[in-house]
Amino acid sequence: MIAALLLLCAVVEHGSNVVAAQSCVSSHKVECFVLADYLNASAPVNIEVCAGKNLIFSLEGFTDYPVCDWIRGKDVVTAVNGSRSIILSSFSEADSGAYTLSYETSSGTGSSLTVSLHVVKKRPTKPWLMLSNVNKPKSSPTFTCASEGCPKPETEWSSTGVTGPEIKSYKYYDKGVMCCATNTEGQECSKLYDYDLDLMRNDGDSNVTVSPDQPLLLRCRMRDEQPVWEKDSKTLDAPALACPTAENKICIRNDSHYGQMTYLFIKSASVTHSGTYTCRGKKNIMSVYVNVQAEGFLNVQLDKRKVIAVNNAKNSCLEASVSYHPMLQFCSWQAPNKIFTKCTWDTWKTKHRTVQLCGPLMSGDYKLHLEAGGQNKTKTISVCVVDTPTFSFKDVDNTFTLETVSAVPANYTWMACSLFNDSCDSESSWEVIQNGSVADSEFFCNKIIKSSLRRELAPANDFKFCITNSVGSWCKTFYSPPYMRMRVAPNPDNDHLMVLKVGSLLLLLTLVVVSVVLMYFVKKKKAQYEPQLQMIQMVGPSDNDYIYINFRNFEYDLKWEFPRENLELGKELGSGAFGMVVRATAYGISKPGVSQQVAVKMLKDTYQTVEKEALMSELKMLTHIGHHSNIVNLLGACTDSGPIYLIFQYCCYGDLLNYLKSNSERYHKSVTDAFNKDRFCSLYHNLQPRKNSSEVETTVDNYVPMSCSTTRGQEDIALLTLSSSDGNIYEDMCESPDDQTEDLHTLTFDDLLSFAFQVAKGMEFLSSKNCIHRDLAARNVLVTKGRLVKIGDFGLARDIENDSNYVVRGNVRLPVKWMAPESIFQGMYTPKSDVWAYGILLWEIFSLGVTPYPGVKVDHNFYSMIDSGFKMECPYYANESVYKMMCQCWALDPSKRPSFSKLVFFMSDQLTDSEKMLYCNMQDQFSSDYQNASAIPDISALTTQDDNKTQTANDYCSTHVTEEGKTESDC
Questions:
Q1: Which of the residues 295, 747, 923, 945 has an alpha carbon 20 to 30 A from that of 653?
Q2: Is this prediction's pTM over 0.85?
């Protein structure tokens, strides 16, 4: 007896033994077994047969053909007499169950056999794409597609609509090709791994995982030249029409129909085929990492919560990102009412698939059950469907009590309409008298919210209560009944009333005139420009005893001067009240004849003399500070015969805040080996080689791939290091700013750690120079190529009048949400206040760009919260140790906050050993000679005159103790 297993093999399980069929043949339509082999079976025989197949009992082996009955329960299903076989028609799942097969020979002997029949259905396997006709002369090869499943899957080429196992390859020389296998249990698809060198477009994956003995097919194409394939930097030869016939050999096939194409085909992959395969043309290259592994994996990413408005519940969808190998065996959503629904997903993504469940959705926990790669996983998302809230209102003893139901977090506001208003129809008639909020909690859906208000807080008849959550805002107005309404008694003396009205009108007119005059003088007295970055000198034993160093009377070293005619200004990058920053091209700033993209800071045309002096002081301070890899470094300046231009490095990816926001959807906290190879194995092929020793070396200060091996199981970290070349601050970090691949912007948890580490390194350098930043935030950190981040000062070009992050306090606008308490309340800035701001910046990084203190308005309640030691909750993407360090940065006592050296050590410890290699040579890179290294002034020879006291510049030097216990000077 024999049972079917999928499509290609038939086995029968007898007790604990599995016996293969000996004398009958199975096909994709028929399963068969030999009855004579199991005449003496004492235990039931288990048979597994695919739905839709016929089942044949072969009677070979008997001296004569017996009389046989196939019985289910007490009913004879089929009976045969004198036939060579018993043929049972197509099975369905309902046919599963216990059967009895009885037989009797002509000699009178007979017996029976108990059979347990299991009729199964199985999803299609991931289709195998193969190449055929590879050795046929003057002909393009053919794409073939095969898949297994139960029932047998139908195959279809999705980009063409052609149904069947093969298509002609030459017809699809310029488009992607995908084969999908479908049966009643689901669908699986495979794309041709296609690499277009002309467009530098990858229509496959940059990381491919296949199982042993499976085929592998890659295609590389160009328009005008024949590309070649390399494996681990060694060229794979392509003899004309001589592809090896052995299955475990690599076959290279060139095809020149309608373009130049080169196929790489392995009919049966083995572990030895793992490695990096590169398709190379004369100008461009693209790489793919092939990993041949038998072990399966399953990774799922699903949000923990989702809040939906009730009117959107019918059309909303739940989504999960799923990656797996080798195939997805089971996928189903379980609703809160215990109903199961099969997953739906997008077709064209073959590795990282978006699994969906679309509405109508209800409140409760949805579970996603998956099985793939030998693993079972269940993920849960809590859904809250929010309806328009109802308000329960009570007025007892002049106290209003409001009760409603809302999703949290939520904010609410009490407002009153004054007695003296003729009407409460306009929004301006309502005055806010009380605010409140309900924080997020484990129970976040339909939480009961209660609030009370004493009537005497505002002289009013009408009150309004408004509540706001993540879905929307709702308000309810409460009107006092007529018998309780307060009224302003009229004055019976009309003449006296007229005098009162005239006097009020005159008083109002006077107030208007005074207000206009005050506004004129406020506008006329515009605040002066002052750089946020300042160098301080300690003048007392306390950390709070310091003065700002005034560089106004320092001499400017002309070695930093850059010819104005070699600077071509471009588009504006930012503009503020005092000046602007523009993108520019500098010719010869790094070496003669070579242009470079730079950023130029300048004042506006209407600048005042004091602002020009402040910009010159900033220039002198920057030349004194020096260079660091995590600072936006000064490259030169134009000060002669025209406006002052400060020339800085240009960072092509903009500020860190917008970088995090724009790439937040691509965040993956746990990434597979495939994911990291995608990002790093194919992006850095255009690095310039070193020049010979007779030339000045200006190698690229960039990240280059170090390794692409699997680490930490399925969670991979792309191993990077800096180029071993000497650092060059003039190198254009963004030579091709428009050539930004999507994979480059995929974020991982280690990327967030690296951003935090680099900012800490930059601030450690500044604090070692006795510099304080005073506006450290993600908006003031730039991102450039290789995910290198640099701290900058953009106060001159920031429009703080229209930037909601800068709030009026006193007569200035300040970024209070980033400021330490001593800075807010005492106007005191120290390196420890920068540490507080660094903690806020950490919160921005690990929330992927969310504004700090979300939903909290900057008012007296906010200042009270800060003064009382309030700390934000842990951001969504941070771990516990990073959050603890944030809280240490927010210590009310500045002396209890960590130093930047300790923060550097902590972030370095958080990074894996492989990431540490990325930064360990960073300082060494920038310690080499620069073009203007000699232009850094020797301030020991300079003097400054202040309040009739002569000081040498050495008075501004300070010492500090290193981690090794040595004393070093900043000068």
A1: 923
A2: no
